[in-house]
Each structure stands twice: as structure tokens, then as C-alpha cells.
Specification:
The complex is a heterodimer of chains A (about 160) and B (about 100). Chain A has six helices and five strands, in the order H-H-E-H-E-H-E-E-H-H-E. In chain A, the strands form two sheets. Chain A has a three-stranded antiparallel beta sheet, with helices on one face. Chain A has a two-stranded antiparallel sheet with strand order 1-5. In chain A, helix 1 runs antiparallel to helix 2 and helix 4 crosses helix 6. In chain A, strand 3 and strand 4 form a beta hairpin. Chain A is an alpha+beta fold and about 160 residues long. Chain A is elongated, with a radius of gyration of 20 Å. Chain B has about 100 residues and is an all-alpha fold. Chain B has one domain. The radius of gyration of chain B is 16 Å and the shape is elongated. The chains are: A alpha+beta (about 160), B mainly alpha (about 100). The interface between A and B is large, with 34 and 39 residues.
């Protein structure tokens, strides 16, 4: 596992340095090995993250980001500034750290809603107006995020 | 190809400008953070995508993609950290005096 991390880090080094001068390449290899060796492997995630489903989730999320981005732009440019900001408590059935990270990040990425405080099962979200909260209240986002994680090992 | 790149960059610039306007017009730190997320998750991303298209498939293209992914991973973390700090230090949204 650490070998894969080292290879990935080395590839990233090559892309970013864009220099195939032997001194740089060797230095990159050494740094990649040290970083991979120092850092502990394994994640705090208690449930498995399904990478293939994430590939489907990302475009959906981006579409949603564009939609609510246009909405927030309209709010900002409208002369009367018709915003109605409020903090809402969002109850969720998601519990594990991985799920909460993905859910919180997705909420914050979407213009119009930002995660303010996170606890297992409950998020405090700042929403700029009522229509920005819709996907959250309807539970679509929770559903999509929970499908990114499988319940038990081997359920791929 | 250049036309597509220009289109993407112009769309990105639109969101950057709107985000900047929002930064000035919105009343408090919470709603200003929404303008920030507008500039980051749409403005910067469209500009970078335009640059990537303009560049074509070279090493620089890969670098731009790496930057794009980093923006998408770090922008929510930064907004969240800022707002959580504001929230924990006792700030609350000030909606009342606005209307």
C-alpha cells in the first residue's frame, strides 16, 4: 500500500516539476519514499468509499453547483438584494467521518449553503435563502452521499 | 478550440466579478462566504478549465487539472473553517436590520 502511495506521489512530483533533469527526478523519488514511509496508512473512514460511484457523483454535484451558482448570482445582482440568510439545523442519518466529510464539503461547495458546524447526525448549515436549502431539506443530497459508501467490506 | 477556451474564461470571469460584487454588497461574514464560494467553485474553476482547453493535452494541462482538484478539495475546507471560527466566537447572521 505504501508503495502505491509513493508511486502516486512521485507521479505528482513529475507532473508538477515538469523537469526530467536527473537530479530533480532522484530528489522527487527520495521525497516520495520518505513521505509515504512517514505517514500512517489507512483512513479514519469506517465505511468503504466507492470510487466508481464517486465518478458519477462528481458531475451531478457540479451540475447542482452551476444551478445554485446562477441562483446566487441573481440574488447578488438584484438591486433589492432579496436574501434571507438563516442558520438551519440539518438532521442526517449519516454517522461516519467519511460520509460527514463528503456531505459537509458538498454542502459548502454549493453556493448558497455552507456547513458551519458538524456533529455526527447533525449539521448546522447557513443558507442564503429558502430555495438554496431545497436539496438539503428534501434529503436528495444525503441519499446520494450515503450511496457513495458501502455498508460492509467486499460489497463493491 | 480557442473559441471554447475564451467562452469558458469569460464565464469564469463573470462569476469572479459577481462574487466580488457580492463580497461588497452582502451584509455579514456568513453571507459573504457565499460570494466566496461562488468565486471559488465556479469562477476559478471555469477560468482554469478554459486555460486547460487552450493549453491542449500537454504537461501543463495535467498541472491545471491538479490545481482544479485542489481548489475543489480545499475551498470548502477553508470556508467551513472560517465560518466555524466565526460561529464559535459568537457571531450570528444579521438578517434583521437588512430589510
Amino acid at each position: 500500500m505504501k508503495v502505491f502511495i509513493a508511486i502516486a506521489l512521485f507521479a505528482l512530483w513529475l507532473v508538477l516539476s515538469a523537469s526530467f533533469n536527473p537530479a530533480h527526478v532522484v530528489l522527487g523519488a527520495i521525497v516520495a519514499l520518505i513521505v509515504a514511509w512517514i505517514n500512517p496508512i489507512g483512513t479514519p473512514y469506517t465505511r468503504r468509499f466507492l470510487w466508481l460511484r464517486a465518478l458519477g457523483y462528481a458531475p451531478w454535484l457540479f451540475g447542482r453547483v452551476v444551478k445554485s451558482g446562477l441562483h446566487v448570482s441573481r440574488l447578488i445582482l438584484y438591486p433589492a438584494l432579496p436574501i434571507k440568510p438563516e442558520l438551519i439545523q440539518h438532521k442526517t442519518k449519516l454517522r461516519s467521518e467519511g460520509e460527514l466529510v463528503v456531505l459537509g464539503n458538498s454542502i459548502t461547495l454549493t453556493p448558497g449553503t455552507i456547513t458551519v458546524e458538524v456533529a455526527p447526525g447533525e449539521l448546522i448549515v447557513h443558507a442564503i435563502d429558502a430555495s438554496a436549502q431545497q436539496d438539503l431539506i428534501s434529503g436528495v443530497l444525503d441519499e446520494k452521499v450515503s450511496r457513495l459508501f458501502s455498508a460492509w467490506e467486499g460489497d463493491q | 478550440m480557442t473559441a471554447l477556451a475564451v467562452f469558458l474564461i469569460v464565464v469564469g470571469l463573470f462569476f469572479l466579478v459577481v462574487g466580488s460584487i457580492g463580497m461588497m454588497r452582502l451584509p455579514d461574514v456568513f453571507s459573504r462566504a457565499h460570494a466566496l464560494s461562488l468565486t471559488d467553485s465556479l469562477g476559478a474553476v471555469f477560468v482554469l478549465a478554459g486555460l486547460a482547453v487552450y493549453e491542449g493535452f500537454t504537461l501543463n494541462f495535467l498541472r491545471i487539472i491538479v490545481v482544479l482538484l485542489l481548489v475543489y478539495l480545499m475551498n470548502p475546507a477553508i470556508s467551513h473553517a472560517t465560518l466555524r471560527a466565526a460561529y464559535r466566537s459568537g457571531l450570528r447572521p444579521s438578517a434583521k436590520e437588512e430589510k
